[in-house]
Specification:
Layout lengths: L1 H4 L7 E3 L16 H10 L3 E3 L23 H10 L15 H5 L14
Parallel strand pairs: 1-2
Length: 114
């Protein structure tokens, strides 16, 4: 699918991380660096999967014991990936202060130079 995307000029981004699940011990990151290099080699911008910007999300499908232990790290990695920053919080449980730290006041996402 990644090489196929080079045939389409409207494909700009690709998710380079594993699926996100707050509180999971599943390794979300081991593939991200290598996938990011592959994506960049075919002119795709890599991004990480969505994340919770708060520690808890009441009423989530995984139950009350499911928590995001480090929403700040999730936000930082989303911004450093250079792709979209995708919070998956319920609307009433978004940490807007944290999410706004990933962009300028006009909404432009902060990104590393390279």
């Amino acid at each position: 699918h990644i090489l196929q995307s080079s045939a389409f000029s409207n494909v700009l981004y690709g998710r380079a991380s594993q699926d996100y699940q707050a509180g999971s011990l599943r390794d979300q990151w081991s593939y991200f660096p290598m996938n990011s290099m592959l994506f960049r080699s075919v002119a795709l911008v890599p991004f990480k999967d969505t994340f919770w910007s708060t520690t808890t999300q009441p009423g989530n499908i995984w139950g009350p014991s499911c928590q995001e232990t480090n929403p700040q790290l999730q936000a930082l990695l989303a911004a450093l990936s250079s792709g979209p920053v995708g919070p998956s919080d319920k609307v009433q449980h978004i940490n807007a202060t944290l999410l706004m730290q990933t962009s300028r006041a006009d909404g432009l996402l902060l990104r590393p130079d390279r």
